[in-house]
Amino acid sequence: MPTPPLAGSTTGPDALRPLLDTVLTALHDGAQRRNGPIPAGGPPTTTTHIHAATHPVIPDHGTGPHHALRTLVTALTQGSADPAHPHCTAHLHTPPLALATAADLAASALNPSMDSWDQAPAASTLEAATTTALAHEIYPHHPHPDALITTGGTEANQLALLLARERHGPVQTICATNAHHSINRATWLLGLPDPLTIPAPTGVMDLTALQETLTRHHHQRLLVTATAGTTDTGQIDPLDDIADLCTTHGAELHIDAAYGGPLLFSPTHRTKLHGLHRAHSVTLDLHKLGWQPAPAGILAVPDHHHLQALHHQAPYLNAHDDTEAGLPDLLGRSLRTTRRPDALKIAVTLQALGRTGLADLIDRTIHTAHHLADLITHTPTLDLYDHPTITTVLFRPTHTDDHTVATIRRTLLTNGRAVLGRAHTHNGLWLKATLLNPHTTPDDLQTLLDHVTHLTHDLKKGNTPR
User: Which GO terms describe its molecular function (predicted)?
Assistant: First the structure.
């Protein structure tokens, strides 16, 4: 077998073209074979298909690039949950834009490593420009805001708590029951005290409980973590009121806006984030309501000096004399060493769509969520939890218990009809539709509800689910 070609240099594109044609055909064929939002049959069926396609995983003699790509990409596509399908709505699992995915191909082909300038001359400059621009969106009134690119909200939240710890020592975190699980995990990883968790009886942080907790623990260094777009309901904490209480009690504030942060690009909906700029750090995730291939997380701070604690030296990557001679020092831009140039796909999207294009995607998707809520309201056999704050809609069949709701969700998964999430609130278990597909139509939404109502009818009658 000849030496396989590489993806870079001037010869790489010619080597990639026929391979990409094979990949694109396999993506198409696999989606046709799946013919739905998720493969039917559940884990056993998918496992059988993948084992058949990959056996043996390491053959004695290779099958060749086209056969391997065709076989494995087709099998993976056939067995994937497809976030571009209008009935794949369980999670904050976005269908990536084609243009962002194409940019990600270029990033993979060039393969810059974002840990030293000599591995990423242009990519490091592009990343700096992109993160600065995004930081200014969050902190428009600060002269020198900055942002880091992360693997997502979990890493960004962990970094935020790490920076607070480095400023003040073992800070005491305060969060509400609606906070993302990564807050608790970050305190564990960083050796911080367990968070003080206060109630969120209406889905958002209870201000009276926050004030009482801040007062009771005034002798400690406190970090309040608020949420702008909860995982379960998509609700946004009262950011300005929380910021006021933090100012009064001398506490710092971190806002996890992984879900809701991109509302900043929508003139119609950005007011929901009023007070965001008052946080000492903000998490943003563009592989949610930003339509980027994962990962595309952001941690923003109001001043670039706030990131100084992340400085780290490894002489082979950022020697003092190289830095003094003008080579940018990149190691303080992440806790990771090798990093992909994830700024490229973000920058391409920002350039291609601009503010108006991003606003249109956001507004269109939120409108779709409100339309789904209206359909549920007008369906006598379904109950709506509440009208959506962003794009998350909770609903359930009327007069059903939690066991039935869970059974409906799993049955829809097993038969490949729909991918719905689940969320617990104060009054039980709900089906969760997290709408992120701007191409979803009213007919798609009605069909999704029909799947639920027909299955509910079958279960109540004791029939075998269709």
Answer: transaminase activity
